[in-house]
Structures are given as structure tokens and as C-alpha cells.
Amino acid sequence: xxxxxxxxxxxxxxxxxxxxxxxxxxxxxxxxxxxxxxxxxxxxxxxxxxxxxxxxxxxxxxxxxxxxxxxxxxxxxxxxxxxxxxxxxxxxxxxxxxxxxxxxxxxxxxxxxxxxxxxxxxxxxxxxxxxxxxxxxxxxxxxxxxxxxxxxxxxxxxxxxxxxxxxxxxxxxxxxxxxxxxxxxxxxxxxxxxxxxxxxxxxxxxxxxxxxxxxxxxxxxxxxxxxxxxxxxxxxxxxxxxxxxxxxxxxxxxxxxxxxxxxxxxxxxxxxxxxxxxx
Amino acid sequence: xxxxxxxxxxxxxxxxxxxxxxxxxxxxxxxxxxxxxxxxxxxxxxxxxxxxxxxxxxxxxxxxxxxxxxxxxxxxxxxxxxxxxxxxxxxxxxxxxxxxxxxxxxxxxxxxxxxxxxxxxxxxxxxxxxxxxxxxxxxxxxxxxxxxxxxxxxxxxxxxxxxxxxxxxxxxxxxxxxxxxxxxxxxxxxxxxxxxxxxxxxxxxxxxxxxxxxxxxxxxxxxxxxxxxxxxxxxxxxxxxxxxxxxxxxxxxxxxxxxxxxxxxxxxxxxxxxxxxxx
Lengths: 279, 279
Fold this sequence. Notes:
homodimer; 279 residues; alpha/beta; Rossmann fold; 2 domains; four-stranded parallel sheet; 11 helices
């Protein structure tokens, strides 16, 4: 059976990241089509729109099918150029801004300044959160823990670092993370001064089979990666978290985004997603 | 003048991050309203939907206005519960999946498995890219540079680290980054073995005034942060990048997302956004 090809273009006068984020979620609803995805960012002039239209034409000729365009364009003039080109055009902004405008009895702004969003405090807090989180990765230091919003704990390779960075980058949350090492498990005690910050602690666990797989990629055939050892570490780590009354979740089949959203929810942190600098 | 309040709920059976990402872009079109934003993730049962509806009721009573709901819900049953509640309901998925379904002559899937997206290679590549990028932050090591997709260079505090992490986290790009330090500028030579990887190099510059501000937050009243010194470093760094024929951009009033998207575009990297583990 031949799987039909279909080109999908995410077209934006900004980064195109918003269009691509929603677009990927939409395409995930459909099996049986080979989507070829192209992001066309910074389409902010008639000339760039013309070039984009030429690329779309070529893709349609190759596919033998019209393309699907997902637009986050503020300019009505440039939007009209794509809407008239014969492709299926999904206007991700206009579809909803007109409904919101009617609801609020307001006109949507025709131009969204970029700099107004990077000069603000939210953006600086976010960069500060990234710096804080990097400086407190993997138990590097015990100092400054009073400034952490969350302190993640878990055995080596349970997903602490990517989760910490995601929380910092997207929600401006300051995260410290600490490995629970075999010595901690022997003593059945949390590392360093973590008990002083009990209300900030959150645990990550993982299925031993998956942990063994991940550790084997790093240190093949080591005691560190052996399934038996992973089983033992995980069992003791869960026991330690229970005895210290630390909430934890299993990272095994969850994406970084899911883990981050669950931590925010369970710790009752009100962090809002940081606005993107540009759509 | 009293600014009217309006509650906006991002409601999802997944993380709610897609809804919030598009939602913030939509709300940015409107000035003059104080939006109160609430993310309600993991609404995947009738019970959780009921709880959410109770929160919406309370917010509407407080605002004296109906709420705006932005939904990324796969279940038609749960979606219907919100659509019948009297709030302005924007169905971010269904609005477009029905158009795409008609175009493709396919039915949208009613359930999007989460694990299918974290078990795949893309997800593992992304985690590997984060690990690579952390291990090659700030010129920590010269080894493994042949595996980098991009090597960022720039003076201290020009935005290299957040940009590197964003490229890794969202696009699965392996990034190494190198500070250009005063010693490099005196010799007018790139640090380490970077010349061997000229085709991977990309530069970040920044306006001296902004750089001085950022450095002053880190080391107040230092020579490092002095405006004169920043001016000199920036001028020499630009001279060095020109003489080494390195493409660069100015990070001053650009968000991390914008810088990342511009680097991908200018280096002609075809990286697609990594699909989120869940909407």
C-alpha cells in the first residue's frame, strides 16, 4: 500500500513555534498519511510571502496534492496572499481572535511588538531561573537552596535534569536537583541539608527495566547499569521517599512536559507558561 | 478607569501546554483587559470536568463576566460538558481537525497515546541532545565537538547558554557553546580548536549597554561589567567574527525562541520541533 504524502507548512511572521506546536498536535490525530512538515518563520513582507508561495507550489507538484498551511500571521495583507493560493489554509490566529474580539468588544491589535515581551520582568525571571537551575543541577551546591521553588530528588538517570530545565525555561521556576546515591540509600537519609527544605522536595522514580536501559547506554555492562542493582536502588529510593513523606511520580513513560505539568499541579505551584517572545 | 477582569481557562486532557501556548499568543492581541489565566491539565474524566466547571463558575461570579475557555480535549463527551456551560468556548483541536479530516478523507483518532511518543527515537534523541548540550556548555570541553550540530560563540553573557538549551530541548539539536574571552580578543583568535569546525560556528552579539546591565547584575561595579569594557569586548568580538567569516546575530531584544529560530534558518538546519509528549 502506498502511503500518500502531504506537505504541511507552518507559516508565521514570528518564529513559527506556536503554529508548529499546535500543528503537530493536530497532525498526531491522523494516521496513514506521510506528512512532510516545513516551518517558514519570519514571513513578514510580500517578497518573503512570494518566496514561500513558490516553495508551496513546488511541494504540491511533487506530492500531487494541495498542501496544508497553518498560519500565525498578524498582517491581513500577507494572510490574504496565502488564503488565495489554493492550499487548505488554517488561520490559527484569526479563527479565534475574531471570536475573542466580539466577546470583549475590542479590536485585536494589528501588530504585536516583540521587544515589549523580552524587555519585561517575566523574561528576565525566566533567564534567571535557567541560570539558577544550571547552577543547582545534580547537587552541585547546597548554597542558595532557600531560593529554590522546587528541589527534585531521585536516583541517577531518573529524569531530574531535563525536567528541571524545562520547568525553568517554560515556567520561570527555580529548580535544584539532587541525586540520591547508593550511600544515601545505605544510610536511608536524604543527601545534604535537604530535610530543612522538606516542603520544596519532589521525587522522581522510574521503572528498573527502563533505568537499566538508560544507564547501559551511558556505562555498558556496569554494576551501575545492572538490572538487579537498578531494582535495588529504586526499591530503596521509594522506601526513603515514603519515610520522608516526599511526593513522587514515575517518569518511565512520561514526557518532560508531562512530568513538569504534573509537578506544578501536585505542588500547587501557580506558575503560568512564560509568553513566547514571538509566535 | 477600571480595567475589566476576565478569566481564561486552558483546559486539556494532557499537559495543557499546547492550549496555553496558542492561548497566550491570542490574548497578546488584546490590550485593556486584565486576563486571569488558569491552566487545568489532565482533565480526563467526568469527575475532573465537574470540578473544573465548579472553578469556572466561581471565577465567573467573581469577574461578573463569563469566562473564556480554550480547549484541547480529545474526548467529545468531556468537550460537550464545557461547551454547554455558558462560557465562550474555543475548541482549539476540533475546529481544525474536522477541516483536516475532510481534506484527507480520514477520521481523526479519538485517542492519542502518550507512550507512543516518549518511547520513540525522537524523544530519546532530544534527551541525548540535552545531555550533550549540558556537557558542552561554556567551553567545558573540546572533546566530542565533531558530534555538535551547532557551536555557538560569543562574549560572556551574550545569551549562549539559554539559546543552546532551547535548541536542544525543542529541536533535538546538539549544541556546544564557547565564550570568547578577553585573551581570545587580544590574540584575535578563536578559542581552542574551533577553526576546525568552522561550518558549525554561529555567533551571538549584544548591544554593549544591555550587556553591561546584565553583567552588573552578576558582578556589580566590576571591570567585567563596566560599559567601556563591554563596548571594547563587543567591538573586538564582532571584528573577530567578521575576520573568521562567522555568521552572527544580535540577541539584545530577541527572545530565546526567536534567536533559536533564526539560527536554524540561517544555518539551514532542517530540524523540526520535537512533538510534545502530550497536548
